[in-house]
From TrEMBL:
This is Nucleosome assembly protein 1-like 1. Belongs to the nucleosome assembly protein (NAP) family. GO terms for biological process: nucleosome assembly. It comes from Phrynocephalus forsythii. SUPFAM superfamilies: NAP-like. It holds the Pfam family NAP. PANTHER family: TESTIS-SPECIFIC Y-ENCODED PROTEIN (PTHR11875). Signal peptide: none annotated. InterPro entries: NAP-like_sf (IPR037231), NAP_family (IPR002164). GO terms for cellular component: nucleus. Residues 1-20 are annotated as: Disordered.
Length: 77
């Protein structure tokens, strides 16, 4: 049973390394969310177009509430 569970988990791990999605998704989000749209300038768009994922890490309990954003982009050409 444990072996079957392990086999079922492996593709999920691979998806984390190679996320699939909509091209330009995050640029579209940033441009269409009222809170963010005024912050995106024309020179930001070519960079945001290559943004693939955003990961949020919250501070551990017992500490002041903080967060870290990890921006994952496509590889350089």
């Amino acid at each position: 049973m444990k072996e079957k569970a392990k086999l079922e988990e492996e593709p999920k791990d691979q998806e984390k390394d190679d996320p699939k999605g909509i091209p330009g998704f995050w640029l579209t989000v940033f441009k269409n969310v009222d809170l963010l749209s005024n912050m995106v300038q024309e020179h930001d768009e070519p960079i945001l177009k290559h943004l693939k994922d955003i990961k949020v890490t919250l501070s551990e309990g017992g500490q002041p509430v903080t967060f870290t954003l990890e921006l994952h982009c496509e590889s350089n050409e």
